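> run fold 1,4-alpha-glucan branching enzyme
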Amino acid sequence: MPTAEFGGIWGYNSRQLMASHGPWGSAADMRAMVERAHSLGMAVLFDVVLNHGSAKMNVLWNWDGFGPDNCGGIFFEGEKDTPWGKRFAFHKPEVQDYLKQACRVWIEEYGVDGLRFDSVHNMPWWLLQQMTFELKSHYPNKILIAEITPENPQVINDAGFHSCWLHATHFDGIKIMKGCDGGGDPGKRIGMLKNMVAPHGFGNIGGVHSAMGSHDQIGDRDHGKQDGHGTHRHFVSRWGGKGNWHARTQCRAWFGFQNCCKGLPMTFMGTENLQEDWWHVDKHHRMNWGLVEGADPQTMEMRAFVTASNKLRISCEALTRDDVKFVHEDGQNAILAFMRWTQDVAALCIVHFGEGQWENDGYGVSTTWGGGRTWKLALNSQAKEFGGWDGSSTPEAKADDSGKIMVNIPKWSMLVYLSS
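> ok
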């Protein structure tokens, strides 16, 4: 989330685009944080808000005494308002240069590995093209991610970004879980899942998605009542809370599923710990480290699965390649199987979002990968060590002449089989 000096509480009302937010520490502290993350093998991306600026206590706004009609002065005059504040004066070369340099400062002075651009649909398309061209020419190894509503692959193909922030994955997941707005129709449900696996028009890193929600869906600024319906919640709280077995197993299934999809999976802090309720910057709703420090057993099961799923994604190149083939669709039972592969290994991913259950190798999954192959289980979200049970899955299956394998399918599960 934004780190530039801002007004408000979440960082999305920028005041000084080249200054780090003072209450969080000094510029040296921020540099040290990035360096420490790098030493641990982690990349760091910063969120930049270039589409509007804060009118309150903003020296840019007050620079020349506003001008008439509260126009914001030389940095804002001539532009229209957005729901969050006035747009910058994009038509001015000086302001264009300011916005470009605001991007470069985070890369050059702090060493970040990429930038996420907030709400680029509130910026001129030609300016986005200029910015991405210049940034990519100076920093070819940095990733640039755009949030645009509605989601549009042209932000990659034409505006020059590497990836697009996808909200649809989360909202389609909610529809599937609630069985509403098409999510309860077998055909439409499978269609939604397929578009999560391979978002239309987006390449392998083209979509950044969070099936279980981001700050927009989990954060709440009104004591848990932001939208009047109490739906801004951590994923586990939407389905019954951490103490509910179904809610926990559904979280594991969705986490494993998004790790097998094309694109860059994202997890909002606390999700990996089965944190409940909503997120906010107040002291009661920040990251709850007590779940980990107290070795909460349900949290430890979820963390064990998150670790196993992440390790599989990192170690299995097939899960990060561009190729996807849908090999089995069962809309009635909410089961979808798809293949990801390299020249050396194939990954068969089977997701089941339903209450049905098949034991004693009682469910047939088509692989279309040729008969006689042996498929070995690499991940089962319903394994006992993750909160499931022994015997919930089939450790190894040999395909018949048609390429079909017979396996156990536990309720609410994500299974990954590998074959070389």
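The chain has a mean pLDDT of 94.
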